[in-house]
């Protein structure tokens, strides 16, 4: 059952590696040549023994056999060189291709996947699992194919030489197969558990390295260390299970090898004395037993690697099983600038929750106007932004952009029209130019500089190297205000018709705050905008406000209208006067 499942997994991955089939075939053919030459050597050794026994003075015949033996070994060495080069290079190409295909798949996962799964598990699949899987197409594949061919070829050669003697030797084989299958199932189970625990380690490390500043601020180093020790301990326990199972397989193979050798020497030697079998056949059989059981030892040695690779293959295959954002053929109509936004009776529920994140929400943002979204944490503010960007699809209701349903655009096209600035700005490691040209590599430096000036960020960039200024991963060498302004420039470069902004809650100094407000005004020019607002100054710059509470739209209107109602917004307004909130 498990073998069939592993075979299905390999078949599932085959479309991603089938372009290398001729290289793999060449490797297998070279393995076949190596195997054939390996099987000829014992026959020559046997003939040499017979020649010596029959006529000790016949040196000429013996020399011819020795020359033939040397040529066999020479050609075998050449075949092994070609085999190793072909298979190793093919394995490298397959590894690179699979990593690319896995990453291509991951970037097409819906946002819901990243909300529900840790990044560490994905990193494990791209790096560790693909590397382990590559063993199937490099060392493991060559060893397995060679060993299987040698075993089959040796059995056939032994049966041809003397089927009675061969039958005695082969009586030990069922025990070998049983040992490999029995302990193999235990190994497979242990490796699957170990891989799962390794994902937890990667996830924990990724999360904690990213949050190291927070850990230090809270003095939580010891607590985090103890948690990590527990995770590593579970991984070690899983590996110990695999070691325990693996340690029992090799002795079984050695015992069975000894039984076969003793049987051959006892029975075969007796038959030689009785004249039933030639000495050369007995000598050849002794060499063939080595040929027979050495591959079995190799199979045992590689069995744990192969099982680990098959477990990795399952996990890599799961990446291709995951649902992706399918790009339906959209009409991709032109959007007039400015255009309005409409939410019509929109409801939405996250897959991991029972309660609705949004419940029958309806509102409209007129073309060119700005609407602030206000509400406590968990009220549904960010969900509105995610639905507008089609990170998620509404459970019920419709969302319109310029009186056209969002379904009419492909997601990639829609996101070119709707710019999004998240609360936590992420900048990629590289130059300022690299970060500004993420979505379009053909933009000119002059255009990039113009947008940086509009975003109030060019002054400090120019002093530190201009567009060639190198940014650390996450933008850690920039201040919070500089990162926010650079994120504004990145959106201005795209020139979207609609803007969605989740305003940062962190406080800035007066100079940075002033720059930020100027940049926001530039962003809003000629655009329809939805702003998840956390500053009073931002709210007051908006044309209308909607107030959310637990997924329900409680109030909407202009600021004076909502203040006069003395309702929920008025309470938030008073909180905002004291500083950023919610």
SSE diagram, text form:
Blueprint: H1 2-13, H2 21-54, H3 59-106, H4 111-116, H5 119-134, H6 139-161, H7 163-170, H8 173-210, H9 212-218, H10 221-273, H11 279-321, E1 341-348, E2 358-365, E3 370-375, H12 381-388, E4 396-401, E5 404-405, H13 411-417, E6 418-421, E7 430-431, H14 432-436, H15 445-454, H16 458-463, E8 470-471, H17 480-494, E9 498-502, H18 510-524, E10 528-532, H19 536-540, E11 544-549, E12 552-557, H20 559-565, H21 568-577
Parallel strand pairs: 3-10, 3-11, 6-9, 9-10
Antiparallel strand pairs: 1-2, 1-4, 4-5, 7-8, 11-12
What does this entry look like structurally?
This protein is α/β, with parallel strands linked by helices. It folds into two domains: 13-321, ABC transporter type 1, transmembrane domain (ABC transporter transmembrane region fold); 341-577, Rossmann fold, CATH 3.40.50. The chain is built from 21 helices and twelve strands. The strands form three sheets. It has a six-stranded mixed sheet with strand order 6-9-10-3-11-12, sandwiched between helices. A four-stranded antiparallel sheet has the order 2-1-4-5, covered by helices on one side. The protein has a two-stranded antiparallel sheet with strand order 7-8. A hairpin with a 2-residue loop joins strand 11 (544-549) and strand 12 (552-557). Helix 6 (139-161) packs across helix 7, helix 6 runs antiparallel to helix 11 (279-321) and helix 15 packs across helix 17 (480-494). The chain is elongated and about 120 Å long. It starts with a helix and ends in a 5-residue tail after the last helix. The mean pLDDT is 81.
């Amino acid at each position: 059952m498990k073998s069939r499942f592993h075979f299905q997994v390999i078949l599932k991955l085959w479309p991603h590696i089938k372009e290398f089939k001729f290289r793999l075939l060449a490797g297998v053919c070279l393995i076949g040549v190596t195997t054939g030459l390996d099987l000829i050597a014992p026959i020559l050794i046997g003939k040499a023994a017979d020649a010596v026994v029959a006529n000790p003075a016949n040196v000429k015949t013996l020399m011819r056999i020795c020359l033939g033996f040397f040529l066999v070994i020479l050609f075998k060495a050449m075949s092994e060189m070609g085999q190793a080069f072909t298979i190793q290079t093919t394995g490298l190409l397959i590894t690179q291709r699979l990593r690319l295909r896995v990453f291509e798949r991951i970037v097409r996962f819906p946002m819901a996947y990243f909300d529900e799964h840790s990044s560490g598990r994905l990193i494990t699949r791209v790096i560790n699992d693909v590397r382990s899987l590559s063993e199937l197409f490099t060392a493991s594949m060559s060893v397995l194919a060679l060993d299987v061919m040698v075993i089959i070829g040796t059995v056939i050669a032994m049966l041809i030489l003397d089927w009675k003697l061969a039958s005695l030797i082969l009586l030990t084989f069922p025990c070998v197969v049983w040992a490999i299958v029995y302990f193999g199932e235990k190994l497979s189970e242990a490796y699957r558990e170990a891989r799962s625990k390794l994902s937890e380690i990667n996830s924990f490390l990724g999360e904690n390295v990213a949050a190291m500043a927070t850990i230090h601020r809270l003095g939580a180093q010891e607590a985090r260390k103890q948690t990590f020790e527990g995770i590593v301990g579970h991984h070690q326990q899983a590996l110990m299970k695999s070691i325990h199972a693996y340690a029992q397989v090799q002795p079984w193979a050695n015992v069975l090898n000894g039984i076969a050798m003793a049987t051959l020497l006892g029975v075969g030697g007796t038959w030689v004395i009785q004249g039933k079998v030639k000495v050369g056949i007995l000598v050849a059989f002794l060499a063939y037993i080595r040929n027979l059981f050495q591959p079995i030892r190799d199979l045992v040695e590689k069995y744990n690697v192969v099982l680990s690779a098959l477990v990795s293959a399952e996990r890599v295959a799961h990446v291709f099983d995951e649902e992706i954002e399918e790009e339906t053929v959209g009409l991709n109509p032109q959007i007039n600038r400015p255009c309005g936004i409409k939410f019509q009776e929109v409801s939405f529920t996250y897959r991991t929750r029972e309660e609705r994140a949004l419940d029958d929400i309806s509102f409209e943002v007129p073309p060119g106007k700005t609407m602030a979204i206000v509400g406590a944490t968990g009220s549904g503010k960010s969900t509105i932004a995610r639905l507008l960007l089609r990170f998620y699809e509404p459970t019920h209701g419709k969302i319109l952009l310029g009186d056209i349903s969002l379904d009419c655009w492909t997601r990639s096209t829609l996101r070119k029209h709707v710019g999004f600035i998240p609360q936590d700005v992420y900048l990629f490691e590289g130059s300022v130019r690299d970060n500004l040209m993420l979505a379009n590599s053909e933009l000119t430096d002059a255009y990039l500089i113009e947008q940086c000036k509009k975003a109030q960020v060019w002054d400090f960039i120019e002093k530190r190297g201009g567009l060639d200024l190198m940014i650390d991963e996450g933008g850690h060498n920039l201040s919070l205000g500089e990162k926010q302004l650079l994120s504004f420039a990145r959106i201005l470069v795209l020139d979207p018709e609609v803007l969605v902004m989740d305003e940062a809650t962190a406080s800035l100094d007066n100079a940075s705050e002033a720059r930020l407000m100027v940049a926001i005004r530039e962003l809003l020019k000629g655009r329809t905008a939805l702003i998840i607002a956390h500053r009073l100054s931002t709210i007051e710059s908006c044309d209308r406000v909607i107030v959310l509470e637990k997924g329900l739209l409680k109030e909407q209107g202009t600021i004076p209208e909502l203040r006069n109602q003395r309702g929920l917004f008025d309470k938030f307004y008073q909180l905002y006067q004291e500083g950023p909130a919610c």
